[in-house]
Amino acid sequence: MSAPSSTRPVRWGILGTGAIARLVASDLALVPGAEIAAVGSRRQSSADDFAEAYDVPTAHASYGALVADDAVDVVYIATPHSRHAEDAALAIDAGKAVLCEKALAVNAREARSMVEVAREAGVFLMEAMWTRFHPTMSRIRRMVQDGELGSVHTVLADISTLRPTDPDDRLFARDLAGGTLLDLGVYPIALAFDLFGPPDDVLSTAQMGPTDVDEQCAGIFSYDDGRQVVWQASFRADAGRGLTIAGTKGRLRNDRNWWKGQPFTWTQRDGSTSTVGAAPEGNGYQFEVAHVCNCVRDGRTESPVMPLDESVAIMETMDAMREEWGLVYPNDRKHPDS
Ligand SMILES: NC(=O)c1ccc[n+]([C@@H]2O[C@H](COP(=O)([O-])OP(=O)(O)OC[C@H]3O[C@@H](n4cnc5c(N)ncnc54)[C@H](OP(=O)(O)O)[C@@H]3O)[C@@H](O)[C@H]2O)c1
Fold it and tell me: Which DSSP category does 183 fall into?
């Protein structure tokens, strides 16, 4: 399929009709030059409901039919982690660009295979690490890179929510690769990679719940030059969801939902404060969508902001932590060629 020109919209196909698919679909309307061409669900009735709610012209009763739809340029994968590799391969095989929800896969083996098939096919693939695309986070990244904070040695990040254990919820389902690490922990981990790169040393711990997934986990990433990232993810308490990035000239602090593009307070050593960034319109997914549209129009097969090798390295880091915790998912046992 030829790349969409600047004169025609980039046409999206939504694969899966769950919670996040709905939020992203509503933000797609905020992106000039993007439109939803089709939705695919395992059930016609779900596809129809979604199509009606978001004014989508075509509703498919299978993911296969969605990816085969000639009216679709980019497939957005919004299924549980356990399906990402399979659903991405389906779309890539059909020649479609793919934006795949985080975590990119269940493990690094799956992530590498997704990257391999995308590169072989010359097709765009990106992990939907939406945090990176918020204007607020772009500004913060620049402040750190440009030395506005001085020498940055310390990051403290919480991402937590109170969710009672529910075996019927994908978040607690081992078969679907639920748990806090892949659902929430991936955000502060990706932030650490974004600001400092891969850690030189990792300490981590997790508490398992009754469904045998991690209901709380935490980590300390250390860097040989003395930098440190301390993070935690939890379903067992809402611990504030704050983020502090501290340097020798001051600290940036967000008190609530830092990964959602919310503004930060910049406090300098003399005590003066100012606000960095502004709350996004909508749910905040429009920035990653716009980025993917630009990449696809430019004929790119990879994002320079969320590179595939970095997504794989993040998965490798999470694999190593899970190995220490003894958290094995059914996907980990699948043979690569099965
Ligand atoms: N970026 C973000 O802010 C954000 C927020 C939440 C979640 N996520 C990510 O988005 C993905 C989906 O999360 P979600 O919260 O939207 O999940 P969800 O509400 O449970 O929806 C998942 C959808 O996947 C499809 N699906 C296919 N096989 C399934 C299975 N065996 N069990 C359940 N659903 C299945 C279903 O769609 P059909 O019935 O239509 O086939 C379902 O509605 C995950 O990777 C998660 O980490 C991202």
Answer: I
**pLDDT tens readout for residues 49-80:** 999 999 999 999 999 999 999 999 999 999 99
Q: Let me know if residue 17 belongs to a domain.
A: yes
Domain that holds residue 74: 10-131+285-304
Q: Which of 1-10, 127-136, 153-162, 171-180 is the least confident region?
A: 1-10
Residue nearest to atom 4 of ligand 1 (CA): 20
Pocket around ligand 1 at a 6 A CB cut-off? 16-21, 41-43, 46, 78-81, 83, 101-102, 128, 130, 170, 176, 183
Q: Are residues 258 and 148 in the same domain?
A: yes
Residue 98 Cα, ligand 1 centroid: separation in angstroms? 16
In tens, the pLDDT along 94-108 reads 999 999 999 999 999
Q: Which active-site residues does the annotation give?
A: 102
d(CA 288, CA 191): 16
